[in-house]
Specification:
Radius of gyration: 18 Å
Number of strands: 10
Bound molecules: adenosine-5'-diphosphate, magnesium ion
Distance between the termini: 27 Å
Shape: globular
Strand content: 25-35%
Order of helices and strands: EEEHEEHEHHHHEHEHEE
Strand order of the largest sheet: 6-7-8-3-9-10
Number of helices: 8
């Protein structure tokens, strides 16, 4: 079995707060309309689509920050569709997420070292300081950056800290949501190169969300195009 993720007929709806409740129950608005796809171990899957097409919502379902309203999400052969927080806890280490805006996802009052160490301590890892140093090495930041604060870093360096925090957990899967969108072109190229190297060297599986097809093309072997919560195209990047 070479699929890390197997997703079948995935549906997600949110309560529609803009409309009047009917008999006290708010109507729901459908965001994802039955998506089926798989993510193979070791691949880089690009998820592309316009604003509001459901990319971030889909990403949050894959790492189970959201619970689907229908369908099935299998991770490494295990059905995680409706798992509760207790059952998810041991899995949380195995799928990591890197967010769009590192300035808001990194605690400004903690040093880079403490930021990377936080999840490691939470999950009971040993040798935490050594793991922090190793993660900094992996993303090409000097170890001395461990004592810096996020505001003392450039945008590209902050994004590297977000990547370091994720890979320090030795995950199998990383979801990156628009992580180069706020960077200038040369920092974008560097972060993309870093991700490609890490996927290869650490044997990661990566889902890379972007609204920018040219970014996706450079990194991803396969791409999935979302439009209004549906998969409208699904193919190898070379064929595009
Ligand atoms: P993308 O990342 O592709 O821009 P999103 O997944 O963020 O798209 O959003 C898809 C749709 O879902 C949008 O119409 C958005 O307004 C809606 N949406 C996202 N999160 C929520 C939420 N928590 N409650 C209600 N609607 C939401
Ligand atoms: Mg988004």
């Amino acid at each position: 079995m070479d699929d890390l993720y197997l997703v079948r007929d995935l549906k997600l709806s949110f309560p529609d707060l803009a409309h009047k409740p009917l008999f006290g129950i708010p109507p729901r608005i459908d965001i994802l309309h039955g998506l089926s796809f798989s993510i193979r171990r070791g691949e880089v899957l690009g998820i592309v689509g316009g604003s509001g097409s459901g990319k971030s919502t889909l990403g949050r379902v894959l790492v189970r920050l959201l619970e689907p309203s229908g369908g099935e999400v299998m991770f490494d052969g295990q059905d995680i569709t409706h798992l509760g927080e207790d059952a998810l806890r041991p899995l949380r280490r195995r799928f990591q997420m890197i967010f769009q805006d590192p300035m808001s996802s990194l605690n400004p009052r903690r040093t880079v070292g403490a930021i990377i160490a936080g999840p490691l301590q939470l999950h009971g890892f040993d040798h935490v300081p050594a793991r922090v140093d190793q993660a900094l090495d992996h993303v090409g930041l000097p170890r001395a950056f461990g004592s810096r604060y996020p505001h003392e870093l450039s945008g590209g360096q902050r994004q590297r800290v977000g990547i370091a925090r994720a890979i320090a957990m030795q995950p199998e899967f990383i979801l990156a949501d628009e992580i180069v969108s706020g960077l200038d072109v040369s920092s974008q190229a560097q972060v993309l190169k870093l991700l490609a190297d890490l996927v290869r060297d650490l044997g990661l599986t990566l889902a890379f969300i972007s609204h920018d097809l040219s970014v996706i093309r450079r990194l991803c072997g396969r791409i999935m195009v979302l439009h209004q919560g549906r998969i409208v195209e699904h193919r190898a990047t070379d064929a595009l």
